[in-house]
Structures are given as C-alpha cells and as structure tokens.
C-alpha cells in the first residue's frame, strides 16, 4: 500500500513532466521559432524583441527534453527493482537555477507582447494564428509562458508529498530529502532574483525623478521611505511644501519642480544618515514638528 502511494506520486511527476515538455516545445519550437523567422524577414518586429520575450526558454526546453524527462522515464521503467527518484532530482536540481533569468524577465516579456501587438498588426496576427492551432488548446501565448514560472513550486509540492509518503526505512529517504532541500533553495533563488530586479527597477525610477544626479545614482542604495513634508520658516511663521527621500545612507531634502521636464524634484540638501540627528518638537502652533540636523544645516519640518 505504502509503495503504491509513493509510486503514484512518482508517476504523477513523470506525467506532468511529459505534459510540461510538450508546453516547452510549443513555446520554443513553435512560437519562438516562427516569430523569429518572421522577424528575420523584417515582417513583424525586431529580432531583439523576440529574443527578449522568450529569454532563455531554449535552454530550459533542451534541459527538460534531453535530460530531466529521459532520466525520469528510465527510473520509472526500473521502478520494480529500483524504486527511487531522489538521486535523479538531486543530480539535476542545480540546473533549475537557470529559471531565475526566465522568471525575472517574465513581466517585461508580457509587457513586450502587449506593446508590440498594438504596434505591429502582422506580429499580432501571427500569434493569433498559432493560438488557433490544436496544440495551443485555446490558450494564449501569455498563458503558456506562465507555465515555467509555476513549474518549480509544482516540483516542490510533489516532492514534499513524496517525502511525506516514504516509510522511514525507505532507501530513497535521504536522497529525496536532500532533493527537496535543493528544490527549495532553487525556488528561493528565483524569488530573490525577482525581488532584486524589482528593487533596482524602483530605485531607477526614483533616480529619474531626481534628475539622475551622478553622486546620488548608486545601485547599492536602498530607498526606505519617501513623501511630502512642510518646511517651517521661523522668520515669517509660514510653511512651504517640500519632499523627502530617505535612503539607508542619506536623506535628500527636495523641492518639487514647477515645470516637470525630465526630473520631478530638485535636490536642495543631502544629509548623511551617519551624522544626522532627529529631535521631536512640542510646538502648539505647528503640531507634528521635528528638527533634522546634519553637518551643514538644521531643518525644522512638519509632518501631516
């Protein structure tokens, strides 16, 4: 009974892998190949765009079709005398790190399909034509492209289930547990790649809003908080709208530009965090006020 349970999961892994390889074949050998052919003829979109949409799908397809699937098939044929899959997954798991690139590129790829479908009717027509084929099963290109993004979490679930069903004395227990750990690390690697890409993208947008000042643009900076603030002028008891960007290493005190051509803000003052002091004030006339002082000057600010 126990062996039947684990064999059932191993078979499910094999069956889903076969279906997955078919999906990868469709993406790489049909969509990518045909769109690339038309791009080379100069009829649809630049070749670079097609390459950017499909990222490293060819490598992923080759890996699964030529290595992972055949290894699983072999193992299932020998199941009666060698009931194990942990070692196979362990051996091939490091290659799954190549998914990081594909997953990181996914949002950009979907955006490119939308943009170029509007720009180039022949491009849109070719995709629509391929989507009508039986192999597409009435699903869109974007739907098929989502499959590799979901594949590693699927391995993780199946393998977790497999390990749970294994009896403690199973010869595959050690290998299967190690394999699960490796798949978990790959999933983490993939998520970290996405998080890092989003951080850099957001950072770049902030730098553009600040006018791409040389001494501020640094990929290692981390934006912690940003928002409008009132600057209090003690001379005439008035306030004026300013804007703050707090990074891990500096506070930027900015003035919103009236004519927003290029940059949205002008940096008036930069205070280094390591020499910065912040003190709350009790001012009846201006509530929620505080002092921020750096080496050069002190600002009296009021929050909302």
UniProtKB/TrEMBL annotation:
Gene Ontology molecular function, alphabetical: guanyl-nucleotide exchange factor activity; zinc ion binding
Pfam families recorded: RhoGEF, SOS1_NGEF_PH
Keyword Zinc among UniProt keywords: yes
Keyword check for Repeat: yes
Annotated TM spans: none
Gene3D superfamilies: Dbl homology (DH) domain, Pleckstrin-homology domain (PH domain)/Phosphotyrosine-binding domain (PTB)
SMART domains: RhoGEF
Cell compartment(s), UniProt: Cytoplasm, Cytoskeleton
Keywords linked to the UniProt accession: Cytoplasm, Cytoskeleton, Metal-binding, Phosphoprotein, Repeat, Zinc, Zinc-finger
Boundaries of every PH domain copy: 222-304
Biological process, per Gene Ontology: cytoskeleton organization; filopodium assembly
Principal subcellular localization: cytoplasm
Any one of the GO CC terms: cytoskeleton
Domain DH: 5-193
Name of the protein described by the UniProt record: FGD2 protein
């Amino acid at each position: 009974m126990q062996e039947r349970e684990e064999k059932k999961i191993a078979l499910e892994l094999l069956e889903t892998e076969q279906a997955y390889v078919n999906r990868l074949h469709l993406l790489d050998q049909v969509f990518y190949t045909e769109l690339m052919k038309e791009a080379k003829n100069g009829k649809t979109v630049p070749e670079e765009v097609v390459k950017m949409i499909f990222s490293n799908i060819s490598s992923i397809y080759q890996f699964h079709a030529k290595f992972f699937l055949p290894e699983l098939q072999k193992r299932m044929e020998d199941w009666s005398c060698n009931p194990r899959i942990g070692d196979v997954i362990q051996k091939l798991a490091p290659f799954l790190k190549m998914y990081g690139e594909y997953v990181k590129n996914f949002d950009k790829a979907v955006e490119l399909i939308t943009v170029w479908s509007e720009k180039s009717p022949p491009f849109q027509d070719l995709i629509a034509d391929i989507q009508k084929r039986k192999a597409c099963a009435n699903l869109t290109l974007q739907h098929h492209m989502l499959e590799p993004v979901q594949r590693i979490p699927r391995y993780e679930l199946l393998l977790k289930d497999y390990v749970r069903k294994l009896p403690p004395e199973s010869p595959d227990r050690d290998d299967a547990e190690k394999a699960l750990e490796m798949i978990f690390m790959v999933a983490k690697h993939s998520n970290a790649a996405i998080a890092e890409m989003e951080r850099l993208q957001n950072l770049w947008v902030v730098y553009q809003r600040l006018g791409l000042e040389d001494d501020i643009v640094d990929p290692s900076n981390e934006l912690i908080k940003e928002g409008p603030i009132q600057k209090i002028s003690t001379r005439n008891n008035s306030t004026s709208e300013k804007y703050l960007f707090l990074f891990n290493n500096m506070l930027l005190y900015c003035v919103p530009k009236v004519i927003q051509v290029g940059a949205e803000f002008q940096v008036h003052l930069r205070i280094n965090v390591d020499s910065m002091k912040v003190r709350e004030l009790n001012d009846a006339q201006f509530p929620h006020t505080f002092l921020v002082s750096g080496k050069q000057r002190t600002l009296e600010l009021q929050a909302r």
